[in-house]
Amino acid sequence: MFIDETRVRVRAGDGGAGVASFHKERGKPRGRPEGGSGGGGGDVVAVADPEVVTLLEFRRHPHRRAGAGTHGRGDLQHGRRGTDLVLAVPVGTVVRDAAGTILADLTEPGARVQLVQGGRGGRGNAALAGPRHVAPTFAEQGEYGEEAEFTLELKLVADAAIIGFPNAGKSTLISRVSAARPKVADYPFTTLEPNLGVVEVDDRQFVLADIPGLIEGAAEGRGLGHAFLRHVERARALLLLLDPSPLQEASVARQHGVLLSELQRHDSALAARPRVVAVNKADMPEAAEAATSLEAALGRPVFLVSAITGAGLPALMHAVADLVEEAVREAPQRPGYLLHRPAPPGFTVHREGERWVVRGKAAERAVALDDLTVPEAADFAARRLSRAGVDEALRRAGALPGDEVQIGDLVFEFQEESGESAGDDAGDGA
């Protein structure tokens, strides 16, 4: 099944916890600190893979999680980093966040974007040792990995796209000029998903897309037009295939006008895209006259072809190859996109009811110790909060001594600094 849009919820791996451990030998029950640090959690990354052609796997399994880091151990044994989760997506996938902002447009094989970041591993007491705390009896907890929801949208990367009304013969044409084998029948909307085929013209090759039939109102979603039009956006050239059959309610001139109008309404750049116009079903009596009259009206060549017999197709494919070649010369690289996401602020301070709430990694890291009931650890956390600017921010926001302050799951009482120097501990930075 061809799936070209789906949502996924991903979570990065949690970081492992550090450990408080000391060297032990006879006569020295607690020697130097040698607690190892925890490993960081794995990231979640999306990578464009030319071997993947649909987003079906993410529709079936929308929840994904990266590996967690392992905890540190004694004897300076550090935890192992969690395994990154690599999401292989089709080339041409657009990644949007929950707010609809485009984070990346992966138009090249191997293009990648980090979706969420793994949690930092907690430092062991060996890494936290410094002039003030020579042998700390505490260690840091690991951080939780980030979690978020994203929308993956596939837009086919083709050199040329066939546009036409239902039953115009698009699927028959692509099956005739390439190895693609789409479903073909004599009723409307036979094609419910785009098809790709590689066309060879002498020593040239290009990728041709068969876009499901468009009708008037396609840009507003009639006939699922809005879902199909996205696959036209990347095509370098367009092939407008018109149907002279009496079964079509619109004349070829009317079809041509409607198709251009729908392209314009979906994306104004599409209507200006280089294009070739062809009238299919040359074996019908009406076809030759329709092609001639349309050519006169447009003032440009209109090809008369038969997707069934192959009549006129070599000349048509040469014309499309010429347009693609010219477009490649003018713009050899398909534009990709990767949004630079600035780092969020270190922390924010808000008043919620009778309590001050501080959110942000800088503040949460400062208090992420394994046992804050130990006075030494509490003092260590208080000085880190002060150096991170949390105390000053609370004071500017209007916090008074005795007010409750919440950071993560921790609730404590705000107090003015004692005036004691914060010190220069080498390992206690947040």
Structure commentary:
- There is one protein chain.
- The protein is an alpha/beta fold and 430 residues long.
- It folds into three domains: 150 residues, GTP1/OBG domain (Spo0b-associated Gtp-binding Protein, Chain: A); 171 residues, Rossmann fold; 66 residues, 2-Layer Sandwich (GMP Synthetase, Chain A, domain 3).
- Helices cover 23% and strands 22% of the residues.
- It has eleven helices and 19 strands.
- The radius of gyration is 32 Å and the shape is elongated.
- About 6% of the residues have low confidence.
Q: What does the secondary structure layout of this molecule look like, with pairings?
A:
Layout: E1 5-11, E2 44-48, H1 56-60, E3 63-65, E4 85-89, E5 93-97, E6 102-106, E7 112-116, H2 125-128, E8 147-154, E9 160-163, H3 170-177, E10 195-201, E11 204-210, H4 225-229, E12 237-242, H5 252-266, H6 268-271, E13 275-279, H7 285-298, E14 302-304, H8 313-330, E15 337-338, E16 348-352, E17 355-359, H9 361-366, H10 375-388, H11 390-397, E18 404-407, E19 410-413
